[in-house]
Specification:
With 349 residues, this protein is of the alpha+beta class. Helix content is 56%, strand content 18%. The protein is elongated. Keywords: Membrane, Transmembrane, Transmembrane helix.
Length: 349
């Protein structure tokens, strides 16, 4: 005997909903695994080369490269002209990077030479190069695995500085998985687009304030506690998602913009730490700061737009049940809890 039509329809609807739920959770789980793996991959952090002219044709050099465990990335800074090394290379580890310093004399003008980060093409990281001449002119460039060398000009335009630091801001937020995970948790709480705009604006304003203050040296915090608290902030917001789905109320649920602003102040110190590590051109600090912040915002908005489009596309085929939202919150919270323990452990080692 055949089953009634409505039972068949209900069964199919149930299978579709279950398929949608499992697909959603699988996507979240896969994303969480990828984020966890990338979070421990130090290679994504950029290298940094600073060359500063101390006397005519004499330069002090600082070269910072990321560490993988106890070994640094095999990167070498090379110049196309004739170079004479004046002092031995001094190496010292600083947490997750190796800093090398030395002095050199150029037998040919440095302007007009090519600088090459040898070995960069075999990595997944970038390198920021900054050259400061004694006459006040400076040049900043971002080298990549596909373009590991560049020509050093005698002068760099303001537009060149702007483009370089916008790109650095976009890259930092794209690889700043903790910041992106916080935004994801915030989006799980705020379902109304007007409230979402308000919360994201509050987050942006807040981290712009502390990014500026910390970068300019007006207000600083140690990086290790900041990074730990950023991870804990994600756990707290993820917990609020679960509370909301259980019908409970809290400040994060009723006034999400306040929580976004408060935690945004904390995240701004994290952005500032990255910018300070990159270094700022002394003659264009305000411009570089503005460009980096703009890059961060562009990257953040692109992430939000892609997430909204992805969720909307999924909803065209299957409905996303409430359990999927709770599952997403647990996935986000689990990854953030892992980071919290990892960073707390690193603080006390």
């Amino acid at each position: 005997m055949s089953r009634p039509a409505h039972r068949v329809a209900d069964s199919r609807a149930g299978r579709v909903a279950l398929f949608g739920w499992l697909s959603w959770l699988a996507l979240v789980a896969a994303t969480a695994i990828v984020l966890t793996q990338h979070a421990s991959a130090h290679e994504v952090r950029p290298a940094y080369l600073s060359v500063q002219e101390e006397a005519p044709n004499e330069f002090s050099v600082l070269f910072k490269t990321p560490m993988r465990g106890n070994a640094r990335l095999a990167l070498t800074a090379l110049f196309s002209g004739k170079i004479e090394t004046l002092t031995p290379v001094v190496s010292r580890p600083t947490g997750d990077a190796m800093v090398q310093t030395w002095r050199m004399r150029t037998l040919e003008p440095l302007a007009g030479q090519n600088v090459l980060i040898d070995g960069l093409e075999r990595t997944m990281t970038d390198a920021l190069v900054r050259v400061q001449f004694a006459d006040g002119n400076s040049w900043t460039a971002r080298l990549t695995p596909s373009e590991p060398s560049a020509l050093i000009p005698a002068f760099q335009s303001a537009w060149g500085v702007f483009v370089t630091y916008v790109a650095q801001g976009i890259e930092h937020i794209a690889l700043g998985f903790d910041h992106l995970l916080f935004v994801t948790a915030l989006m799980l709480i705020v379902r109304d687009w007007r409230k979402l705009v308000k919360a994201i604006t509050a987050f942006t304003v807040a981290h712009s304030i502390t990014l500026t203050c910390a970068t300019l040296g007006w207000l600083t915090l140690p990086s290790a506690p900041v990074e730990t608290m950023i991870a804990i902030s994600i756990v707290m917001v993820a917990a609020e998602v679960v509370r909301m789905e259980r019908g409970r109320l809290s400040l994060a649920i009723t006034r999400p913009w306040i929580v976004a602003f408060a935690f945004g102040l904390l995240h701004g110190f994290g952005f500032a730490g990255a910018l300070v590590e990159l270094g700022l051109p002394q003659n264009d600090i305000p411009l570089a700061l503005l460009a980096f912040n703009l890059g961060v915002e562009l990257g953040q908005l692109a992430f939000i737009a892609l997430t909204v489009i992805a969720v909307y596309s999924i909803r065209q085929f299957v409905s996303i049940p409430r359990k999927a939202i709770v599952g997403s919150a647990y996935a986000v919270g689990t990854v953030a809890a892992f980071w919290s323990v990892e960073r707390l452990d690193a603080m006390f080692l």
